[in-house]
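Fig. S4 source data, part A: sequence.
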Amino acid sequence: MMTHLQVTDSVDGNNDIATDNYKVMPHNIEAEQALLGALLVNNNAIEKVADFLKQEHFFNPAHGRIFDITKKMIDRGQEASPVTIKEYFAKDEDLEHVGGSEYLTELARNVINVVNVYEYGRTIYNLHLRRALIALGETIADNAFNANIDLNPQMQIENAEQSLFQLAEEGEVKGGFITFSKSLTAAIKIAEKAYQRQGKITGITTGLKDLDRMLGGLHNSDLLIVAGRPSMGKTVMGVNIAFNAAKAYLHSDGKEGAVAAIFSLEMSSEQLAGRILADISSVPSDKIRKGELLETDFQKFVEASQLLSSVPLFVDDTPALSISAVRTRARRLKRTENLGLIVVDYLQLLHGSSRHGDNRVQEVSEITRGLKAIAKELNVPVVALSQLSRGVESRENKRPQLSDLRESGSIEQDADVVMFLYREQYYLEREEPVRKADESEERYNERYENWQNRLSEAYNKAECIIAKQRHGPIGKIEMFFQGEYTRFSDLDLQHSDE
């Protein structure tokens, strides 16, 4: 009976059979039959394909349903055999076309062995991929032919890339158990790598020695939040980290640092380049912006440009990006340039899907989950800058805390590291004492002198408050901040230069 079940237009993984007007989609009926028969004979064989094979991967719809019912019964601890699953197909028209319930018995009866179940499963899945690629190509062509105001060409490209990436990832068998000895070996290799590095860090360097020591560098798959009120230096920190990582990658021939990308939703790429130019050339950024330059400054620009033109740093300054677009563009850069670090400036300027409507809390939650998913999927650290709520300004002590994270508790929940930037100098400069009407001159001078002393102590200093670190300690790091050069550096290094 089995012979008449093998469809005459069956197509294996290498040959397509064409009729006069069309090509039959790639498929292999015999592989589907062999796999199903093996599962019905030996239920334990499901373990070889359960991680990647699904009902929709079968070309024959009846085969897909047989697989689904068989898998569900095995998952529930029940025996799946031609007899036990027969009742689920009593009125299945697709099964009737190939012989009815007796077909189930024939599948089991014609099994030669169950050793090749995995190979059958991969064959079925690979043919599914080919059919999906054909369908995707047709969809891309149809969309390109038909003008749609809601789907411009750039969006079509992003959708196509996302679909292709999903196809590539869909059938990969990831996760699962590994022996502890392998985990232990990997941990020892990481420790050895840290020991061999001069900075004693295991992750990507930030270029800031004290911060690297506290974090151990930036670790792959981590989401790091750098938060602060306006003018605290968030963008400076993000740009410094990205540039320092890319520079380390260049100078070490890829052994340290990382290829870095900045998604700048607030500033243009030219503005960011100007900030980096100010840092490298030590020419104040406001003078660059106003054109108040000396002839010697241009020589500094030439020397700086030689470094900047070689550093593997990429900037996307498209405004109002969606988290989906960030994911698509990051995937592309990972594929083409071996992307190793992402900086987003800043989180609240991203958009989620349209389904949240006016619920901004849910939208921010989707964004933070999306950023964490990107970090895990691409196996890179993602540094996201974030605004803090105005509640900070109403307190006497304006140092940020976790409750100040704006709009959503999911930021704290999804992040592996949360860092706050705080500059007391910023607030002190705006609190210059004014003599009160009933205040003596002596008392006023005393207050003014205290204020000057505090301002002098806080001058060019910043605090990086690590309020959460999933895999390490929390604490405070003091840094040197030069706003005119848009630069953070280690405080002890500055003291040693004085």
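Fig. S4 source data, part B ends here. Residues 197 and 492 are 21 Å apart (CA to CA).
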